[in-house]
Design a protein that fits this description.
5-stranded antiparallel beta sheet, mainly beta, 4 domains, 33 strands, elongated, 4-stranded mixed beta sheet
């Protein structure tokens, strides 16, 4: 009894069920009694055309060895395996029309999930991104295996998963396992040129202290758009007090003198900043402050008011203090400045 053919796929005769469990590479099989099976150049999942144009027929009893697979497990014809037949041609054949002679090794792992990473991609036109596919079984085990990459819309992809945008808009990149399981990534392509910067952040949470003159700290600036996505706008750097700290075009901060400085990162008209303290000084170091009006109040130290100037002030714990200058005999603040230790 011969099987009927539809687009190169054998329709199983009534009562003949596809074998439920996948076999293994290296197993020996033969064409089941009363059957004729097609050895195709492609899998049943992706194949087109008839067996006459895509492969060759093998009759009942012909033997072969499984060299690849499984594939096509989601179709009604069951699993498909690539068979190296003892008599050519070789090709993909339906498990339901084959009989197992000997099983080689443990059952093959069956891929149930394909995950593409990153799963969401936002790029500029012409900016390539390497994607990766992870294959897992129903038990959650990660397994290795080939995938076929494809893309639609604004994206293109090569055989290794390298995505290259081809137009402004959206697209999808899909990885398909050998047994037809698919995973995808959503791609959004923007016109060349970064999105407007909404905020600039740095890798410093408020302030950084460099304890020695000549010491360095590497700062990084991160411009974000209004959606919170990192954008590629270049970041420039400047120091508000170069005598305390110098900063390079790459964000390398170098301590020049004791004191406090504000380092500013700018991108797309937006700025972020952080404080740099050079010190702290050794408790007991002193500096002389000379002012023309008022008393001096120093936070974290006893209140010093209505003293004659000049005055010698001992600084502890921090290299700099905020000084509030008041009118003589009052607490009304005239001006505010910062006093910092300067060693000879």
């Amino acid at each position: 009894m011969r099987a009927r053919w539809l687009l190169g796929v054998a329709l199983l005769p009534a009562g003949l069920a596809a074998q439920a469990n996948p076999w293994t590479v290296g197993s020996r099989v033969h064409v089941s009694a009363g059957q004729t099976v097609c050895a195709r150049a492609d899998t049943i999942v992706t194949g087109t055309g008839t067996c006459g144009t895509g492969g060759g027929l093998h009759n009942a009893g012909e033997k072969g060895t499984i060299t690849r697979g499984p594939a096509g497990g989601t179709t009604k014809w069951g699993w498909s395996w690539f068979i190296h037949y003892d008599t050519p041609p070789d090709g993909w054949s339906t498990q339901g029309l084959l009989t197992l002679d000997s099983l080689a090794g443990p059952p093959a792992a069956v891929v149930t999930t394909v995950t593409v990473s990153p799963s969401v991609v936002r790029v500029m036109l012409g900016q390539p991104v390497q994607l990766a596919a992870t294959l897992t079984t129903s038990a959650g085990a990660v397994v290795s295996g080939p995938v076929t990459w494809s893309a639609t819309g604004a994206a293109s992809v090569n055989g290794t998963g390298l995505m290259v945008p081809v137009s402004v808009g959206t697209g999808t990149v899909t990885a398909t396992s050998q047994n037809g399981v698919r995973g995808s990534a959503a791609v959004t392509v923007q016109a060349a040129g970064p999105a407007p910067v909404a905020v600039v952040k740095t890798n410093v949470g408020g302030s950084v202290t460099i304890t020695t003159i000549g010491g360095t700290f590497q700062a990084f600036g991160y411009p974000y758009d209004s959606s919170g996505a990192l954008v590629s706008t270049p970041v420039s750097w400047r120091s508000s007090t170069p005598a305390v700290a110098a900063v390079s075009a790459a964000g390398l901060v170098t301590a020049v003198g004791l004191g406090a400085d504000t380092v500013v990162a700018t991108a797309g008209g937006k700025a972020g900043s952080f404080l740099v303290y050079v010190g702290p000084p050794t408790p007991g170091d002193t500096t002389t402050l000379t002012w023309s009006v008022g008393g001096i109040q120093v936070p974290s130290l006893p209140s010093l008011r209505h003293f004659s100037l000049p005055i010698t002030l001992t600084l502890y714990s921090r290299p700099c203090y905020v000084l509030n200058f008041t009118a003589p005999g009052t607490d009304s603040v005239v001006t505010t400045t910062t006093a910092c230790l300067r060693k000879p």
